[in-house]
Amino acid sequence: MGKLVALTLLGVGLALIGERLLAFSNRQRMNVSREVEPVEPGNCHLIEGIETGSEDIDILPSGLAFISSGLKYPGMPSFAPDKPGEIFLMDLNEQNPRAQALKITDGFDKASFNPHGISTFINKDHSVYLYVVNHPHMKSTVEIFKFEEQQRSLVHLKTIKHELLRNVNDIVVLGPEQFYATRDHYFTNFFLSLLEMVLDLHWTYVLFYSPQEVKVVAQGFSSANGITVSLDNKYVYVADVFAKNIHVMKRDDNWGLTQQKVIQLNTLVDNLTVDPATGDVLAGCHPNAMKLLVYNPEDPPGSEVLRIQNVLSKKPRVSTVYANNGSVLQGSTVASMYHEKLLIGTIFHGVLYCEL
User: Fold this and answer.
1) CA dihedral (67, 73, 75, 81) positive or negative
2) According to the model, what pLDDT value does residue 5 have?
3) Does 116 qualify as catalytic in the annotation?
4) How many CB atoms lie within 10 A of CB 160?
5) N or C: which end of the chain has fewer CB atoms below 10 A?
6) How many CB atoms sit inside 10 A of residue 106's CB?
7) 56 labeled part of a ligand binding site
8) Which regions of 222-331 does DSSP assign to beta strands (E)?
9) Using DSSP, how many helices (H) and how many strands (E) does the chain show?
10) Which domain range does residue 12 map to?
11) How does strand 103-104 pair with strand 153-160?
12) Is 104 in contact with 154 (CB distance < 8 Å)?
């Protein structure tokens, strides 16, 4: 009798999972049938030398742009699976900006470098530090580098590890070794992560890290992804990629986050940046997630960039800055502005440069 009950429960469980798997491929949150109408903001072209991804981009006030490239992410394509990741630099003040791979000094394991989200921090003495989410051997660490502008190099200073720093996606730094980071999936096993996505468990979170304290400050996300901060540092913006929305959260005095609102969109939101001239949020998005999960070079994933104006108002204004069906740019993740120049990055493809 006990075995019969167990088999019945197993059958019900498998049927439920099967139903969810079937529904998952057709659910609206995957935008399975969505196609985008092309939108090109101005003179745009791909940057030579970056062909294996530009997952995240951070631009200094001086116009120097850091680009993380070569991400190997479970379930995502990679055009160079055996090549270590790199950090590229572009000077957007140049008339025809070019990408240059930054040298990383000795003492750091460059062979296993797998960069994901990045964030810059400028110290009081004007020194520039680059924080990089790294996945060596599919683990998660945060690497701290000092940028040497004259030598065009990165000096590795420290590797941060912590039990809460698992499956880290993105990071935003607000002080010396003080940052928020997102966890985009709960399980480290690929099959369980896929099951987690299918069942939409909402087990991911945002954490705060400092040498004195590490804690979860916001949770209940389907897949917490990109994260950034407002120009005045009072609000934190978090993208929930599979929920297709952006969470607006107010920073508390103790580094906690209090949710203010959720901006619902019709696209899967990846990384977020803030336009330094306007305070608007720029979102790199995936119009059709199924094309990412089941990659077909004949029908590649498209790209989409949204601008959200008046983020804190009751009715933020959402407009499309860039859209392409994959014929030019595949799998956009981030868009970052400097004056009238726009860089759009991708998971595994190139980087697009536009003069608006």
Assistant:
1) positive
2) 44
3) yes
4) 18
5) N
6) 8
7) yes
8) 224-229, 235-240, 245-251, 257-264, 268-274, 281-286, 303-309, 317-324
9) 3, 25
10) 1-30
11) parallel
12) yes
pLDDT band for position 99 (cuts 50, 70, 90): very high
| 48 assigned ligand-binding residue | no
Same domain, 239 and 326: yes
User: Cβ atoms within 10 A of the Cβ of 266, count?
Assistant: 13
User: Is 106 annotated as a binding-site member?
Assistant: no
Give the active site residue among 116, 135, 247, 286: 116
Report if residue 138 sits inside a domain. no
What's the confidence (pLDDT) of residue 178?
A: 98
Smallest CA-to-CA distance from 165 within 131, 119, 132, 214 is with 214
Kindly state whether residues 24 and 58 are assigned to the same domain. no
Domain count, the chain: 2
Q: What is the mean pLDDT of the chain?
A: 92
Residue 165 domain flag: no
Give residue-wise pLDDT tens across range 298-324: 999 999 999 999 999 999 999 999 999
Q: What is the pLDDT of residues 1-38, one digit of tens each?
A: 454 444 444 444 444 555 455 455 445 667 887 889 99
Q: Please choose, from the candidates 224, 250, 353, 255, the residue with its C-alpha nearest in 3D space to the C-alpha of residue 311.
A: 250
Cβ 185 vs Cβ 159: under 8 Å: no
- Calculated CA dihedral for residues 173, 162, 332, 103, nearest 10 degrees: 70
Q: Does residue 72 form part of some domain?
A: yes
pLDDT score of 3: 43
Burial class of residue 95 (count of CB atoms within 10 Å of its CB; 0-12, 13-18, 19+): exposed
**Total residue length of the chain:** 356
Rounded distance between C-alpha atoms, residue 283 and residue 305, angstroms: 6
Does 284 lie in the same domain as 308? yes
* Residues 196-250: tens digit of each pLDDT: 888 889 999 999 999 999 999 999 999 999 999 999 999 999 999 999 999 999 9
CA dist 239 and 332 (Å) reads 14
